[in-house]
Amino acid sequence: MKLMFASDIHGSLTATERVLDIFTRSGAEWLILLGDFLNHGPRNPLPEAYQPAEVASRLNAFSRHIVAVRGNCDSEVDQMLLDFPITAPWQQVLLPQQRLFLTHGHLYHPQHLPPLQADDVLVYGHTHLPVAERQGEIYCFNPGSISLPKGGNVPSYGMLAQGTLQVLPLMGGEPIAQVTISH
């Protein structure tokens, strides 16, 4: 199974269109969105092409292919604009050998883990920082932010294919980070 991950859209139409174009061409079965869909948040600047209603419309066209979790900037009003559920604080994807625990990252993160087993993967956003690494018995994966990257990073998204998780630059190029999760 091939999965694509994106986090922290924050209402950027430019970033949303780029992600949906990549998703369409990628062959991924699911687009996993890790929260902060429409609102830029009070501590963030306005992202490029801040158009939350149009972002909702574009995402709705892909609603049958989206698995999503709620971010700290998401609200009940946002859910009213979206045709796919976003109010769950976490979701799980079960792979043959392990579990992907999907969360935004403000409730569960590497310093505050949910109950996980060895080789499970914590998939989170929130920090806007790309991560793909093994930490102790688990893997941690953060695709970064497609709209407001931090730490000098470029906008990025994630992909899981053939047992490898990669963080990739939104505008193309070599992987920023990667880790192999299947043995």
- Strand content bin: 25-35%
Q: Tell me the CATH superfamily.
A: Metallo-dependent phosphatases
Which fold does the CATH topology refer to? Purple Acid Phosphatase, chain A, domain 2
Structural class: alpha/beta
Report, as a whole number of angstroms, the end-to-end distance.
15 Å
Low-pLDDT segments, ≥5 res: none
Radius of gyration: 15 Å
Number of strands: 11
By CATH reckoning, the class would read Alpha Beta
| CATH architecture term | 4-Layer Sandwich
Strand order of the largest sheet: 3-2-1-9-10-11
Report the biggest beta sheet as strand number plus sense, adding barrel if it closes. 6 strands, mixed
Net shape: globular
How many domains in all? 1
- Count of helical segments? 3
Secondary-structure element order, as H and E? EHEHEHEEEEEEEE
Overall mean pLDDT: 96
Helix content: 10-25%
Pfam families: Metallophos_2 (PF12850)
InterPro entries: Calcineurin-like_PHP_lpxH (IPR024654), Metallo-depent_PP-like (IPR029052), MPP_YfcE (IPR041802), PdiEstase_YfcE_CS (IPR020935), Phosphodiesterase_MJ0936/Vps29 (IPR000979)
EC number: 3.1.4.-
Protein name: Phosphoesterase
